[in-house]
Design brief:
Length: 661
């Protein structure tokens, strides 16, 4: 209240500008001189015989202004090992080649070649790209059924989940269709001789690691002038926040260049306080001068101008494309190149100047909300690497005339296309493929929920599940996703998402949890077994929502009326049993009370158990049956290996509590 009166008094007397100036000046004078970058701090360091210099720097040995965050390395004093940590995975640096901006990486446990295979989806990460000088190894994993179709060129590999492995010659990041429809194929880069043929030592190849190229500011001008390149996180207007630290202070470009006007870097707390006070005074000014609509417009412009291109490229770790390049890539966003559209924008097929085929999403309009969703998707996807998540190649600047995102091109459309859309008549998705889609989607969601901090997708649906050339899953569209505090049970936020998929408890309580994604995924499971859309106004009123329809059919032992007739007709008894098991799992996911739903990790485990089960497979079928029997007796007394597995009357708990967790 006192603060408001002071602000009003200053505003009425037009004294807020000089008062703010004096306040900021006094704060700047009070900033500690020790925050100034020191020349000796950023001198090259040795770790295990490897010289570490800009853009790389060593955590705990050098301050953060010695290099960009993406190049921070850790040096183990006892072993001299040097590594980079990305998403809690350690990438060991065997050698840095500064002359051609490349690094020789290997994964942590060099005695376990399987670790390399399981880590292949993180072999390329900004600002490092897998070098074309590598060779590649193909490996088959998650195999089921007969392996008779696997070519003899694939050798046996004694790794968990990995069945066969083959040396594939020159490295090519484009994935190849699996030679066996019952297996998933992966590709890992390795260093090796292209003349390798018979008798390949795959363990040695995997231990040798791979080469990666990196992009960083050229430091030669600064170094030639006697300076050392550094990084100023508070001044990202220059590319990569680059500065030249010289014996006589900080300069821009070189020691003979212009002196940095911000020689003393304000301590974080002081700068934050000054910024907060400045924003408070500015807010008072805006309230008095503009209408509500003008204020919203200004807010959008202020946020847009405060987000610099270097923040996208450095902090969000992704490439910034020029708008003109993407216009060229899509033939001026020609309608013939449209792949689809949704609530946030139209997706086009494009070809970049480097020859890559990409998917280009052009967002509708450009306002505060669109900029927020745009930056949210860039932030999340730039930090994630998983085989079942779509890869973000980059975006335009937020200051571009339009907001555009660039993704890897996924050629086989969406799951919705194949279930209810333009490709449904082709009947490509067999039951094993549908079950595999469910497993891979659950795998992606489990990964999102397991990272630190966890990520809630918030828009899980079949139109956001893409299929690549081998019909492997790529989960997409993170515009609504939320970073979830690790120690929180829920986040209070206004409901957003797609009708038919949104958690009813989320609507009722405005509390977003990991179980919200589980509910949406339950709808996806029902779509996979029924081929019906989540919302269909042509159905009876009580069945417009597929989730309601599914719960009613399962409770009334009418599963056959829910399942896709053609899918049921062409399935044998073992497949029908698995369909029934997936229906039971969907039933659990669709409980109105979030506490009664399984966690997504449990859902994944259940789906894997179902895939491995059959009535004649003994322990595996019993394992799946035991997993599906809920402790709360949602589905008790069900004979899991019976064709009448859904004959029992199941009870759906419909009461949801909004009590704070």
């Amino acid at each position: 209240m006192i603060g408001e009166r002071i602000t009003m008094w200053l505003t009425r007397r037009k004294l807020w500008i000089p008062a703010l100036f004096l306040l900021l000046s006094s704060l700047q004078r009070a900033a500690p001189e020790s925050a100034t970058p020191r020349y000796d701090d950023c001198a090259p360091r040795l770790c295990g015989g490897q010289e570490v210099r800009f853009p790389f720097w060593i955590i705990d040995r050098q301050p953060s202004y010695c290099g960009p965050p993406a190049f921070a390395l850790t040096c183990l004093n006892d072993t001299g090992a040097l590594f980079l940590t990305v998403l809690n995975i350690k990438f060991y640096v065997l050698r840095i080649f500064y002359s051609n901006s490349s690094v020789h990486f290997t994964l942590g446990d060099a005695n376990d070649p399987c670790a390399f295979l399981l880590g292949t989806n993180t072999s390329g990460f900004f600002p490092f790209n897998v070098s074309d000088s590598n060779k590649r190894i193909f490996f088959l994993y998650n195999c089921s059924g007969s392996e008779s179709a696997i070519p003899r060129s694939y050798q046996n590999m004694s790794c968990p989940r990995v069945k066969r492995v083959m040396f594939g010659g020159e490295y090519d990041p484009v994935r190849t269709r699996s030679p066996n429809p019952n297996c998933t194929v992966g590709v890992v880069p390795v260093m090796g001789d292209s003349n390798i043929s018979a008798g390949i030592n795959y363990t040695a190849l995997l231990r040798a690691g791979w080469m990666a190229n990196y992009t960083a500011r050229n430091c030669s001008k600064c170094a030639a002038s006697g300076g050392r390149c550094g990084y100023d996180a508070n001044n990202t207007s220059t590319w990569q926040g680059s500065i030249c630290i010289c014996p006589n202070g900080v300069h821009l470009g070189s020691c003979s260049g212009k002196k940095n006007s911000h020689r003393t870097l304000l301590a974080a707390g002081t700068a934050g306080s000054a910024g907060l006070l400045a924003l408070t005074c500015a807010a008072v000014f805006l309230v008095r001068r503009f209408t509500k609509s003008q204020r919203n417009s200004t807010l959008s412009r202020n946020i847009s101008s405060s987000l610099k291109d270097s923040e996208i490229q450095d902090h969000f770790q992704t490439h910034v494309f020029s708008y003109d390049e993407l216009v060229e890539a899509t033939d001026c966003f020609d309608s013939s190149r449209e792949l689809g559209d949704g609530g946030f924008g139209i997706v086009y097929k494009g070809k970049l100047r480097d020859g890559r085929t990409v998917a280009v999403k052009r967002l509708y309009g450009k306002n505060y909300k669109k900029v927020e969703q745009f930056m949210n998707e860039v932030k999340i996807l730039s930090l994630l690497r998983h085989q079942f998540l779509v890869s973000l190649y980059g975006s335009t600047s937020h200051r571009s005339r339009e907001l555009v995102l660039v993704y890897e091109f996924v050629p086989n459309g969406t799951v919705a296309d194949h279930l209810q859309g333009r490709r449904a008549a082709e009947r490509i998705l067999t039951w094993p493929m549908r079950l595999r889609i469910a497993i891979e989607t659950a795998d992606a969601l489990a990964y999102l929920h397991a990272v630190d901090p966890p990520i809630i997708h918030r828009d899980v649906k079949t139109t956001n599940i893409l299929l690549d050339d081998g019909f492997r899953v790529k989960v997409a569209d993170f515009g609504l996703s939320r970073l979830f505090p690790a120690d929180a049970t829920h986040v209070s936020t206004a409901p957003q998402g797609t009708p038919g998929y949104v958690d009813p408890e989320y609507y009722q309580c405005f509390q977003l949890t990991g179980k919200s994604d589980v509910y949406s995924f339950g709808v996806v499971l029902v779509e996979l077994i029924s081929s019906k859309p989540a919302i269909d106004l042509r159905r009876e009123k009580i069945e417009v929502h597929l989730a309601n329809m599914a719960i009613a059919k399962i409770q009334n032992h009418e599963l056959v009326d829910l399942v896709d007739p053609e899918l049921w007709r062409t399935s044998d008894e073992a497949a029908r049993m698995r369909i029934a098991m997936v229906a039971e799992l969907a039933f659990r996911c669709l409980q109105s009370d979030g506490d009664r739903r399984p966690a997504v990790k449990e859902v994944l485990e259940g789906l894997v158990a179902i895939e491995n089960s059959a009535c004649d497979s003994g322990d595996k079928a019993e394992d799946a049956a035991n997993w599906l029997r809920d402790d709360a007796s949602l589905m008790h007394n069900v004979a899991m290996c019976s064709p009448d597995t859904v004959a029992g009357k199941w009870v759906s708990q419909s009461t949801a509590s909004c009590a704070s967790q």
